[in-house]
Description:
Layout: E1 4-7, H1 16-31, E2 36-40, H2 42-45, E3 56-60, H3 70-78, E4 83-86, E5 98-103, H4 119-135, E6 138-141, H5 144-154, E7 161-163, H6 170-174, E8 187-191, H7 200-210, E9 217-221, E10 237-241, H8 245-254, E11 257-260, H9 270-276, E12 280-284, H10 289-293, E13 298-300, H11 305-317, H12 319-333, H13 338-348
Parallel strand pairs: 1-2, 1-4, 2-3, 4-5, 5-6, 6-7, 8-9, 8-11, 9-10, 11-12, 12-13
Helix pairs in contact: 1-13, 7-11, 9-12
Amino acid sequence: MTTLGIDARMLGPSGIGRYLGALLPRVLPALAPRPVTVFGHLETLRKQPWAELPHVTVKKCQAPVYGPTEQAALALAAAGTASFWSPHVNVPVFYRGRLVVTVHDTYHLLPEARRAVRLDKRLYLKQLYRAVARKADRILCVSEFGAKEVKRRLGVTRDRITVIPNGVDAETFGVVAATPPVHERPYLLFVGNDKPHKNLRRLMLAFDRVANDLEHDLLLVGRCAGADADNPRPDRIRRQGAVDDDTLRRLYAQATALVMPSLYEGFGLPPLEAMASDTAVVAARAASLPEVCGDAALYIDPYRIDDMAGAITTICRDAELRQRLVTAGRDRVATFTWLRAAEATADAL
């Protein structure tokens, strides 16, 4: 049997690392007895229970993502494999085997990315997207919106794309107790970063408009240090930074609502994680978010600060609405499981 290689350098606590962390324990057993070599940081890979599977080998490949040594390291790692799965667009561009690539979004091809991404990184990513369009035998997208973006921006035919939505570990979020309190006041929650497409600046301005009429604070979880300069109410808009998994679960569970004002998301896990925590969701009617949230969110126009401010007031004051959204969220989150995503991913591989 031919060997499948998997790039797991990004395995870790955030973003694509969480995607890998959820899928690999479920995908790798399903691929047995096919030999699989997983590449990445050995100290991380060796801690994974799946590293002991008889058909799995772990090997060192520690080149930084987007770094100058990445392509040479990937070429060396992929040598001897007949097929290769890249969980992101940083594919081995000279690879000659069969290539499967997960494209989470095409944000870096948008004009808006010029404000948030260095020129050298944008140029490198542009070449990577071109390589995906040219070389990938199968492209995995995490939403129908993402598939349409790949088709439109990369010129890829739909028959090369498989849509496999992300999942959520509902039982992990659902069992978190709401005590002890993680914050001294009621609060709304934002989970993300301060990149322009996350729309954090408009959210802060919207909260500022209604803060005097509410007892709530706005807590920002993630890499949001760049938002400090635009923060109109440092006493009420509190930056939490990156938090551990247990703290994140408690923050979700105790929030009055999660607000997801993004202009662009290939999928967007925070709304599902909030729903799994029995927390109401306010979401932008944009990109993939309506596809993910269905009827279980209060929608906003992410470009209109007044609309966002009105929704913030409504979600804080209307307990009946929150309960309806929580009930709808329980049904919605049940349709997104990592087991289902893993089965479809294993089939594609």
